[in-house]
Design brief:
It is a single chain. By secondary structure, this protein is of the alpha/beta class. It has three domains: 30 residues, no CATH class; 353 residues, Alkaline Phosphatase, subunit A (3-Layer(aba) Sandwich), CATH 3.40.720; 60 residues, no CATH class. It is built from 15 helices and twelve strands. The strands form two sheets. Strands 1, 4, 5, 6, 7, 8, 9, 10, 11 and 12 form a ten-stranded mixed β-sheet that branches. A two-stranded antiparallel sheet has the order 2-3. The protein is globular and about 75 Å long. It starts with 10 loop residues before the first helix and ends in a 20-residue tail after the last helix. The N terminus is likely disordered. It comes from Hydrogenophaga crocea. InterPro entries: DUF1501 (IPR010869), TAT_signal (IPR006311). Pfam families: DUF1501.
Length: 478
């Protein structure tokens, strides 16, 4: 029988509930002691490692990102896609040359705008994870079509942007308050001098970085977000600023007021420490000045690189970062719209990897992409519609690069459930994932330092996977 919600029974969930009882005045000593045990159980890092999630909001079109290149597959792809297919002649500069060729002569190339990322793949520091997406349990096409949702549960509200973003980030429906990045941070935060800096978003608020204890600390592409009234004269008056600072930071007798001021004080002190650290690694200096201009993702990743450079100043050993791009919901204008986006993604990731090399941390930093979902292989005329599984990239010196991970899906849109050739489509060329997000995340988390015993605490469905067809560790990390 599949474990549908093991998260309800984890030590972490028990601690959270004990903490809730403590808030009401019940079981306070036990909660405090259990919290200490939980912290001691987290791994104690002595080296540095960082995970960088690059989220592509809107649902990236997989078929024009990692493109079938061998003549047979490209011909099938072009026939199905029609006017939104990319000609084979345009792909010569981005052909991917894996160390171990795919069976049956299958080849892939990247979008023509992704020469930088193709170079990282062929250079052995990037891998392509094929056909990954949210799954509760392994599913065949017949099981997907079954009405028995107890034996064959499916992710909630497939093909919906906000719901699938949530499932990618949390393994749970929209409204969930903790993500697997944040829960990974829960285990790592004791390794950092300032544990507020364990999980950092350069792209606004995100549930991905929210843990039971770890916070999603938000910064802009330029650095820490300042509390203006505490960092500059108010109405031109230093006296007013001093009064505002006192009001914002002093202890209060009212519980909620005091907690609010504690949060403000934490933000104020963290902003100061972060600003001072970043000042030692100016954006105008190498390697940070080599990022492409007019590229929002590059600006975010430049800031991540500067924070990584400042790791010793800040006392950080383990960090999880979140950056993002939008604009991928290309129901129309796919050819020109995606070309711009793919160029920005490739340029930003290439510059970021080069920066980690120059900083001497290439083997310690791993970036990976994620998105709401893939899209349909079929065209709607000028674009593609919402799908499910997709292809994604993992980049870093510790990545087992120049390889495809997972199963290469056939190029087909058949609707026949009895067609053994086409078990990986659920209509219109929507990919039924052959790899789950939980497996993808578990592989990254294990490299980061999470033990096998702790995987279930951050990935509630990972116990449903295993064996040859659905290994917990996909093997793309050293």
């Amino acid at each position: 029988m599949y474990l549908i919600d093991p998260a309800k029974h984890t030590r972490r969930a028990f601690l959270r509930r004990a903490g809730q009882l403590a808030f009401t005045g019940t079981a306070l000593p036990a909660a405090l002691n259990l919290a200490a045990i939980g912290e001691a159980a987290a791994f104690d890092a002595t080296d540095y490692k960082a995970l960088v999630c690059v989220f592509l909001f809107g649902g990236n079109d997989y078929a024009n990102t990692v493109i079938n290149y061998d003549t047979t597959s490209h011909s099938q792809y072009a026939t199905i896609r029609g006017g939104i297919a990319i000609p084979r002649a345009d792909l010569a500069a981005t052909v991917l040359n894996p160390t171990t060729p795919l069976p049956d002569g299958k080849q892939y190339a990247l979008h023509p705008a992704m020469t930088g990322l193709a170079g990282l793949f062929n250079g052995g520091v990037a891998a392509v994870q094929l056909n990954v997406g949210p799954l509760v349990v392994p599913l065949t096409r017949q099981q997907y079509n079954s009405s028995n949702n107890v034996l064959y549960p499916k992710p909630p509200k497939l093909f919906s942007h906000n719901d699938q973003q949530s499932v990618w980030m949390t393994s749970a429906p929209e409204g969930t308050t903790t993500g697997w990045g944040g829960q990974t941070g829960d285990l790592a935060r004791s390794s950092n001098t300032n544990n507020v800096l364990t999980c950092i978003s350069v792209a606004g608020n995100t549930v991905f970085l929210s843990g039971d204890q770890a916070l999603s600390y938000q910064v802009s592409s330029n650095g820490a977000v300042r509390i203006n009234s505490l960092n500059g004269n108010v109405y031109g008056s230093a006296q007013v600023r001093a009064a505002m600072t006192t009001l914002a930071l002093q202890s209060r007798s009212h519980v909620l007021e005091n907690e609010y001021n504690l949060v403000t004080a934490r933000a104020y002190s963290t902003e100061g420490a972060l600003t001072n650290a970043l000042n030692q690694f100016p954006a105008a200096n190498a390697p940070f000045n080599a990022f492409p201009a007019n590229n929002g993702l590059a600006n975010q990743l430049r800031l991540v690189a500067r924070l990584i450079a400042a790791r010793n100043v800040l006392g950080t050993k383990r960090q999880v970062f979140f950056v993002s791009m939008g604009g991928f919901d290309l129901h129309d204008n796919l050819i020109s719209g995606q070309a711009n986006l793919m160029g920005q993604l490739s340029g930003a990731l290439s510059a970021f990897y080069d920066a980690t090399v120059q900083l001497g941390v290439a083997n310690s930093v791993t970036a990976f992409t994620a998105s709401d979902f893939g899209r349909t292989l079929t065209s709607n005329g000028d674009g593609s519609d919402h799908g499910w599984g997709s292809h994604h990239f993992v980049v870093g010196g510790a990545v087992q690069g120049a390889r495809f991970v997972g199963k290469a899906p056939p190029v087909s849109v058949t609707n026949s459930t009895s067609d053994a050739f086409d078990q990986w489509h659920v209509g219109q060329g929507r990919l039924l994932p052959s790899t789950s997000v939980d497996q993808y995340a578990a592989t990254l988390a294990r490299w980061f330092g999470v033990s096998n015993a702790e995987l279930g605490q951050i990935l509630p469905h990972i116990g449903n996977f295993g064996g040859t067809d659905y290994p917990v560790d996909l093997g793309f990390m050293a």
